[in-house]
Structures are given as structure tokens and as C-alpha cells.
Design goal:
This protein is mostly beta strands. The protein has no helices and 13 strands. It is rod-shaped.
Length: 234
């Protein structure tokens, strides 16, 4: 909003002055701190024991299938410290008329200013993702004549994604406008002195600071330990 000031003075000696101005001061801070993210699609521990005795024993068949999908995500954060819209306007008008022989002084003192500051901080935690974390033990034992077949199959399939990025931090995104309009008019008459002066100006001061610290990202599709033991005894 403009700050209008108008002063008018008449007489033998006339003085008209305006003292004032317009200013804005804005500050802002934004902080985002995320914790760690842990995701596991499948966490399995499997034990299979198969035993057969006697002649013409049947087949031994064991199958283990683990499939997992994991997503750990601490990113995609946005922080803005200062997003203000600031307008400072000063409008001053001084008019002094000293008459026939008088002196006249017309002066304006003031201006318009904006001062804005902003800080933005983003700190993300670590992201850990494991598609399949499995431990498998298969023990097959067959004893006798004409023992059947032994078949053991283990399938592990995992997909993992860990993400800590795509962060945006803006310390100061303010929109600042400063305007100063001054008009001084002095009329000293026929023999008088006249002084007209304007003192002021317009200024913008803006500061910003932004920090982004991302945690570690760890992704493991498959983390397994598999043990298969097969024994045939007469």
C-alpha cells in the first residue's frame, strides 16, 4: 500500500516538510527431517526334511518359491523458507509558497524499503529396501533298494528400490517491490529564497539460504542362503 503524504504551507516565510516512509520486513524458516525407511518384500526361513525307508520307496520332491517387492522412500520433499509478496510504496508531496517577499522551503524525507530473509533445510534419513531375504534348508534322505528320485528346487525372485532424492529446497522466493514518489515545490516570491529538496529512495534487500542433506540408499533384490542335502543309502 502506498503511504501518501501531502504538506502545503503559505505565508511570508513558508516551510513544508514530509517525514516518513514505508517498509516491510519478512523472515521465514522451513525444516524437513525424515526418519529412516526400511522395507522388505519377503523375509522367510524355510526348513524341509524328507526321509524314506524300505524297498521301492517313492520319490522325494521339494520346492520353495519366494517372490518379493520392496520400496523404501524418504525423498520427494519440498521446503520453502520465504515465499512472501511484499510491496512498499511512499508518495510525498510538499508545496511551500513564501508570499511576495518571503522565503520558501519544501522538503520530503523518506523512502520505501523491503527486507526479506529465508532459510530452508531438508534432511532425509536412510532408505533400505530388500526384495527377498530368505534362508532355505532342504534335507532329503532315502534308504532302501530301488529308492525313488530326489528333486529339490529353490526359486528366489526379488525387486527392491530405495530412494532418498528428488528434494527441493528454496530459501527465499519472495516477490519484493519498493517505490518512492516525491514532489517538492517551493515558491519564494519576488525577493525571497526558495529551496525544494527530496531525500529518499527505494531499496530491496533479500537473503536466502538452502540446505539439502540426503541419507544413504541401499537396495538389494535377493539376499539368500540356500542349503540342499541329498543322501541315498542302500
Amino acid at each position: 500500500m502506498p503511504t501518501p503524504m501531502a504538506t502545503e504551507s503559505e505565508g511570508d516565510d513558508a516551510t513544508a516538510t514530509n517525514h516518513g516512509g514505508a517498509s516491510n520486513h519478512s523472515e521465514g524458516e522451513a525444516h524437513i527431517d525424515t526418519g529412516d525407511a526400511h522395507a522388505t518384500g519377503v523375509h522367510a526361513e524355510t526348513h524341509i526334511d524328507q526321509e524314506s525307508e524300505g524297498d521301492d520307496s517313492g520319490d522325494q520332491d521339494a520346492e520353495v518359491h519366494n517372490e518379493g517387492d520392496a520400496r523404501a522412500h524418504t525423498g520427494d520433499n519440498e521446503a520453502t523458507g520465504n515465499e512472501s509478496d511484499n510491496h512498499a510504496e511512499s508518495d510525498q508531496d510538499a508545496d511551500a509558497d513564501g508570499g511576495d517577499d518571503g522565503d520558501a522551503v519544501a522538503a520530503n524525507f523518506g523512502g520505501a524499503s523491503n527486507h526479506s530473509e529465508g532459510e530452508a533445510h531438508i534432511d532425509t534419513g536412510d532408505a533400505h529396501a530388500t526384495g527377498v531375504h530368505a534362508e532355505t534348508h532342504i534335507d532329503q534322505e532315502s534308504e532302501g533298494d530301488d529308492s525313488g528320485d530326489q528333486d529339490a528346487e529353490v526359486h528366489n525372485e526379488g525387486d527392491a528400490r530405495a530412494h532418498t532424492g528428488d528434494n527441493e529446497a528454496t530459501g527465499n522466493e519472495s516477490d519484493n517491490h519498493a517505490e518512492s514518489d516525491q514532489d517538492a515545490d517551493a515558491d519564494g516570491g519576488d525577493d525571497g529564497d526558495a529551496v525544494a529538496a527530496n531525500f529518499g529512495g527505494a531499496s530491496n534487500h533479500s537473503e536466502g539460504e538452502a540446505h539439502i542433506d540426503t541419507g544413504d540408499a541401499h537396495a538389494t533384490g535377493v539376499h539368500v542362503m540356500t542349503m540342499i542335502e541329498q543322501a541315498l543309502k542302500d
